[in-house]
Amino acid sequence: MGGADPWDCLYHGMLPFHEHFRHSISQISTLLLTLAPTSPSPPKNKVTNLAQLLYISSSLCSSLETHHAIEERFIFPTLAKKLPQFAHSSQHTKEHEQMHHALESLEAYIAEVSKALRSGKLKNAAELEEVFDYEKMDKLVQGLKGVLLPHLAAEEASLRADVVKKAGFELGEIRYLIR
């Protein structure tokens, strides 16, 4: 963090996690396009891409749930003392609730498709539509993306040095949160 403002330590501590979530949702969107009914990808590649899509989607869901549990249990309560956007039933916690609903729906569909694949319902790659509904998955991913990306930007803006200084935090309080 070279010449970075030490008050930005919480922001910089969160950024790698947030960038990972952005990268994951981007990978998911890219893989999903290869599974579109109009995609020129060969059927065999679509099966491989579906397996990757399910794995990355499941990993993202799990990572987000863990990240939010840590934020809500350990970080938000301290920040909420001086930054109301982190309080219970406030901006960021409401965004987490919206995201959790989107995650639950996405996880349920991932489980459904994974179960169908494991059961052998997919006899050959040309029958992909028998176990996977592109439109449904696209809607679920877009729903998550529509909540996730604005939330990450808003949360990051709330963690910048000028915001935490203005709220009256001591530098030690902010550093303690990322110990």
TrEMBL record:
Domain Hemerythrin-like: 18-123
Record's signal peptide: none
Domain of life: Eukaryota
Pfam family, one: Hemerythrin
InterPro entries: Dimeric_xanthone_biosynth, Hemerythrin-like
PANTHER family xrefs: EXPRESSED PROTEIN, HEMERYTHRIN-LIKE DOMAIN-CONTAINING PROTEIN
Protein name: Hemerythrin-like domain-containing protein
Gene3D superfamilies (alphabetical): nmb1532 protein domain like
Cross-referenced CDD domains: Hr-like
